[in-house]
Amino acid sequence: MAQLEELYNMYFKDVYHFIYSIANDKNIAEDITAETFLKALKSIQSFKGKSDIKTWLFQIAKNSYYSYLRKNKTAVSYDSMPEEKSGIDIGEKLISDEEAMEVQEIIHNLPEPYKEVVSLRIFGELTFKQIGSLFGKNDNWACVTFYRAKEKIKKIMEAKDESNM
User: Distance between CA 153 and CA 47 in Å, rounded?
Assistant: First the structure.
């Protein structure tokens, strides 16, 4: 029991921020995070250690969120996006709070799996190997998906910058 409390203390914020980044709703994020740790408690003996414990918790959280969406009949689209080149650096945009909120809004509006991959990488700080594992894919798929999402974000931000001129 002490181990689970330690896991909870170590990963609560990560799981919460991950779910909040894809749900964009504090109540849903709180509920799914709580559900994630309850499910982890019930199935901790089934954790075989084939992946990082954080990856395992994120997988539980992801599945819980998708179950929530199915129960509430919310559609999730897995459309692909074209690659685009641009000159905006996302890291620079995160400097101010206003720009950070703008980037967060853009990320929230990305189609799946881009939104989730970006959230796992930025907010969950998972490696591409861990992200690929969550999706049943390889690390190259996660890297390419993250790159395409970044390019989409850059394109949207460029368009907003041009419209503000």
Answer: 36
Contacts of 58 (CB under 8 A, 6+ apart): 14, 15, 18, 120, 124, 126, 130, 134
What percent of the chain shows pLDDT beyond 90? Answer: 2
Q: What is the pTM of this model?
A: 0.54
Instruction: Name the DSSP letter for residue 80.
Output: -
Look at residues 141, 155, 142 and name the one whose alpha carbon lies nearest to residue 90: 155
Query: pLDDT tens digit string along 103-146?
Result: 778 888 888 889 888 888 887 778 888 888 888 888 889 888 99
Q: CA dist 157 to 31, 86, 89, 95, 105, Å? A: 32, 10, 10, 14, 11
CA–CA dist 114, 94 (Å, integer): 19
Which domains does the chain carry?
Answer: 2-71 (1.10.1740.10), 90-163 (1.10.10.10)
Q: What is the mean pLDDT of residues 93-97?
A: 49
Strands (E), 36-129: none
